[in-house]
Design brief:
It is a single chain. It is built from 14 helices and 12 strands. By secondary structure, it is an alpha/beta fold. The longest helix has 35 residues. The structure holds pyridoxal-5'-phosphate.
Length: 479
């Protein structure tokens, strides 16, 4: 085993030694990944205490390094066998996807060049790539010619960015109050954001971080299809307005996390206009529909002021990859701040783009490159096949289970998740999920619907076949 010696190259560069080492360590890593599994199971089944014991080491930072080969050899026995294999058809618990192979390659490029997206002089070509990718995404989501957007760490940050824009816009437009400079107006505890009771918890988190508090989030009841109940929303808005509260934002969920249900953007837009609020679409989940045969199911996204798009869910890109798009590019100005050492105004006047002015982050990964790799590689046709398969698998399973005496299904899926339960006790359903993970290496989801425990299949994986779905649902019965 080769120890790391003092003259081992540290960095990529011109020397033959550095190039050889780069090839060798990347190749060694690829080999370690490929030899870490020998079946299609999603998980080894190991229990948490056993796994903790395997991972325990006396020292993480030994006096002398063991070298890359030494580290890798140890990791191959301690760590690699226990990774969840997200590409397995038996992995369907969450909106957590396998990664398309070309996008794993793009991660290597991102890490090798390690550009930072804050300023042009830290990421010349990656900045231009992000700007170009955003331009095409604005068109894909019908966000108009005056829009803009930025890549973020995920849907939670995309939602926070959009709700920050909404709050600042409302303070400026409706209250003539410069919140960026002066902080919250005295009426801060009257601000209200309306979203479905099934919306993502990043709504509450965002309102907390923005100084508005959880109580600013009004959870609107849903109808039988788990969509926001529009007449209930209309009543809540009217009541709040009459009581002197300040509706500033409505959030449509385009694909609720558990059910994949889709709120009606057109109906929400009418209410947003009537009450003078911002309209945000949280399409972290449903955004993948835009490149499928089911794009119309998203509704008319040309009506929203902002939209969250996650690429690490339906699009099958590696974590993390998300963006927020806004209809009016000036509404991202809330993130702009000039630093003498970073984004000098004179450079921007000369055409150097510093993306830090649109982002909550400073140092930021070149995630837009993953979208470039994937979209160029697969094209619309390739993506339509991936996403259509997911949607059709959910529809197939719905048909099957709703005819089966032993199962109950929550709602008819619009995207790719199916929430169902085996008739009988909640305990039995909970036990099934545990048995599947530890005895069979099959990882499925669990949630609550109308107060009862339900199981959930999140069918993002395009290699899933009807036969596999039949096998798993038959297996669940035998448990
Ligand atoms: C997953 C999800 C989020 C959060 O996105 P992250 O990328 O996990 O931060 C927000 N909204 C909805 C509807 C989601 O499904």
């Amino acid at each position: 085993m080769m120890k790391q010696c003092a003259n081992t190259p540290l960095l990529l560069g011109q020397s033959d030694q550095a190039r050889a080492l780069f090839r060798q360590e990347i190749q060694g890593t690829v080999d370690a990944i490929l030899s870490s599994f020998s079946d299609e199971r999603a998980f080894s089944g190991i229990h948490p205490d056993e796994l903790r014991a395997k991972i325990h080491i006396d020292t993480l930072l030994p006096e002398e390094g063991v070298g890359f080969d030494g580290m890798l050899e140890d990791a191959r026995s301690r760590i690699f066998p226990y990774f969840l294999r997200t590409w397995s058809p038996d992995y369907m618990a969450h909106l957590h996807s396998p990664a398309l192979i070309e996008t794993i390659a793009s991660e290597l490029v991102i890490a090798a060049f390690n550009q930072s997206m804050d300023s042009w002089d830290q990421s010349p070509v990656a900045t231009e790539v992000e700007v170009e990718v955003i331009r095409h995404l604005l068109s894909l989501y019908h966000m108009g010619k005056e829009g803009d957007g930025v890549f973020t760490s995920g849907g939670s940050q995309s939602n926070l960015s959009a709700i920050t824009s909404a709050r600042d816009w409302y303070c400026n437009e409706a209250l003539h109050h410069d919140v960026k400079k002066k902080g919250l107006p005295s009426s801060y505890n009257r601000f209200r954001l309306y979203t479905s009771e099934l919306s993502h918890f990043s709504m509450e988190k965002s309102c907390h971080l923005l100084g508005l508090g959880y109580d600013a989030v009004v959870k609107v009841p849903v109808d039988r299809e788990c969509r926001m109940d529009i007449s209930a929303l209309a009543l809540l808005l009217a009541k709040d307005k009459a009581e002197g509260n300040l509706p500033f934002c409505i959030v449509a969920t385009i694909g609720t996390t558990d059910f994949g249900s889709i709120d009606d953007i057109t109906a929400l837009k009418a209410l947003a206009d009537e009450y003078g609020t911002w309209l945000h679409a949280d399409a972290a989940y449903g955004s993948g529909l835009a490149v499928s045969s089911y794009a119309k199911r998203m509704g008319d996204t040309s009506l929203v002021d902002s939209i969250t798009v996650d690429f690490h869910k339906m699009f099958l890109l590696p974590i993390s990859c998300s963006c927020v798009l806004v209809r009016d590019k000036h509404t991202l100005d809330c993130f702009e701040l000039h630093a003498d050492y970073l984004n000098r105004e004179e450079d921007e006047e000369d055409g150097y783009i510093n993306l830090v002015g649109k982002s909550l982050q400073t140092t930021r990964r070149a995630d837009a490159l993953k979208v470039w790799f994937a979209f160029r590689t697969r094209g619309k046709d390739g993506f339509a096949r991936i996403i259509d398969t997911a949607v059709e698998n959910a529809a197939y399973l719905y048909e099957r289970l709703s005819k089966d005496e032993d199962y109950e299904v929550a709602i008819k899926p619009e995207i790719s998740s199916l929430v169902f339960r085996l008739k009988g006790s909640d305990e039995k359903n909970k036990q099934i999920r545990r048995t599947l993970i530890h005895d069979k290496g099959i990882v499925i989801g669990q949630t609550v619907y109308q107060g009862r425990t339900y199981l959930k299949f999140t069918l993002l994986n395009p290699t899933l076949t009807h036969a596999v779905l039949d096998q798993i649902t038959a297996l669940i019965k035998t448990l």
